[in-house]
Amino acid sequence: MIKLPQDAKGRKATPVTTGCLDYFPDAICAVAQLSQAANDQHNPGQPMHWARGKSMDHADCLVRHLLQRGTLDTDGLSHTAKVAWRALALLQIEIEEKAEAALVEEPVLNPHWRATWGDADA
Predict the structure, then answer these.
(1) Mean confidence (pLDDT) of the chain
(2) pLDDT tens-digit readout, 73-84
(3) Could you give the CA distance from residue 90 to residue 88 in angstroms, rounded to a whole number?
(4) Which residues of 59-95 are buried (b: 16+ CB within 10 A; e: fewer)?
(5) What is the spatial distance between Cα 62 and Cα 85, in angstroms, rounded to a whole number?
């Protein structure tokens, strides 16, 4: 998972506000409003959270909403905002899966293990 760097140089190279929020303030607000409406619909009475198991076909949904961009969905919400939400979901999952895969890679064996544990094949 990509985290905000801990060192000053790394943090400055990750301009979350000036490199994202300031570029797209209205779009970010539209996605946040969509998240609230979706939470109210899919998780009524529950605190805001992403119920990841309820819809996982982000690429297909993204394209379906993209085909209807510039219009409102039957729930009165923007298809284009739904494209943005699905794109963010797809990217978040992709980043998490890559991070998880990196944790599961084969461990590098210590070349001196035989000296420590002995050689079972000898």
Answers:
(1) 88
(2) 999 999 999 999
(3) 5
(4) eebbeebeeeeeeeeeeebbbbbbbbbbbebeeeeee
(5) 8
